Amino acid sequence: MSKAVEQLTVEKHGHVAVLTFARPPLNFISVDLVRDIADALERLDGEGDCRAVVLQAEGKVFCAGAELDNPEGVSGMDSILSLYSQAIRIFAVETPIIAAIQGAAVGAGLGLALTADFRVVAPEARFSANFVKIGFHPGFGLTHTLPRLIGPQRAGLMMLTGRRIKPDEALAWGLADEIVPDHKLRSAALKLAGEIAEAGPLAVAATRKTLRAGLVEAIQAAMRHEHAQQAILRETEDFAEGVRSVAERRPGKFTGR
C-alpha cells in the first residue's frame, strides 16, 4: 500500500484558527496525524490570542476511521495505545473546537469529531461507530464521549448496530449542532467559532472548564478499558474475518470465535 501524504495547515482569522488536515484519499487516522493535530492545538493554546479553533478536513470525507491492517496507519495494539495517548492531548486543550464535517465520520473518525465542542455538518455527512461490524470493540474514548453527548440509549444503538446516522437524525440527537449546504460548511463553522471568540475569553475559558470537569480523566479511563477489550478481540477469528470483509467490501460472516 502506498504511503499516504499527510498534511496539516494552520491559518489565523483574527482570534480564530483554522486547522485543515489531509491524508488522502479518505483521511484515515494515523498516530502521526493525531499527534500533529494535538501539537498544533497545544501551540495555539500557548499563543494566548487564539479563542476558538475550526477543525476541518480536505476531500470528500471528514475521516473514514483507522486502517487496522495498515502499518502506515494504526496497526497493532501498541500503535492503538499511542493513538489514544495523542488523542487525550486533544481533549486536554483549553481552546474551544468546532469541527466542520463533510462525508463520513466513521469509527476513529467519529472519535476525532467528538474531540470538538461543536459539529457543523454538511447534508452528505454520515456518522457511524462501526466497530462491531468488523468484530472489534469501540475505541478513541467513544464509550464515554458518545453516551455523554447523545445519551446511553442512542449511543448503545449506534455502537451495537454500527448503523450510519444521517444529519437530520444527528441534529435531533445532539450529535450535530447545525446543518448547512456543503458550499457553506467552512464559513458556517468559522462563523460559530467567531461567535465564541467575540465573547469574554476569561469567561469562556472558565465556563468551558466547568462544563468539562473530569472529562479528560474519564476518557483516559474509558480508553484503558477499550484498549484492553480490543486486545482480546484482536486475537479472535471474528476480527480477522471483519478485516477481510472490509477489504472485500462485503458484510462479515461472523462465527463468535
The CATH architecture classification is Alpha-Beta Complex
- Shape type: globular
Major β-sheet, in short? 6 strands, mixed
Question: How many structural domains in the coordinates?
Answer: 1
Quantity of strands, as a count: 8
Helix percentage: 40-55%
Q: How many helices does DSSP assign?
A: 10
Q: Whole-number average pLDDT?
A: 94
Major sheet: arrangement of strands = 1-2-3-4-6-8
User: Under CATH, the topology is which?
Assistant: 2-enoyl-CoA Hydratase, Chain A, domain 1
Q: What is the CATH superfamily label?
A: 2-enoyl-CoA Hydratase, Chain A, domain 1
N-to-C span = 29 Å
- Classify the beta-strand content into a percent band: 5-15%
Question: How would you sum up this structure, described in words?
Answer:
This protein has 257 residues and is of the alpha/beta class. The protein has one domain: 2-enoyl-CoA Hydratase, Chain A, domain 1. It contains ten helices and eight strands. The protein has helices at residues 31-47, 77-92, 108-113, 142-150, 152-161, 167-173, 185-198, 201-211, 215-233, 237-247, and strands at 7-13, 16-22, 52-57, 97-101, 104-106, 118-121, 126-128, 178-179. The strands form two sheets. Strands 1-2-3-4-6-8 form a six-stranded mixed β-sheet, with helices on both faces. Helix 1 runs parallel beside helix 2, helix 2 runs antiparallel to helix 9 (215-233) and helix 4 crosses helix 9 (215-233). The longest helix has 19 residues, at 215-233. The model has no long low-confidence stretch (mean pLDDT 94).
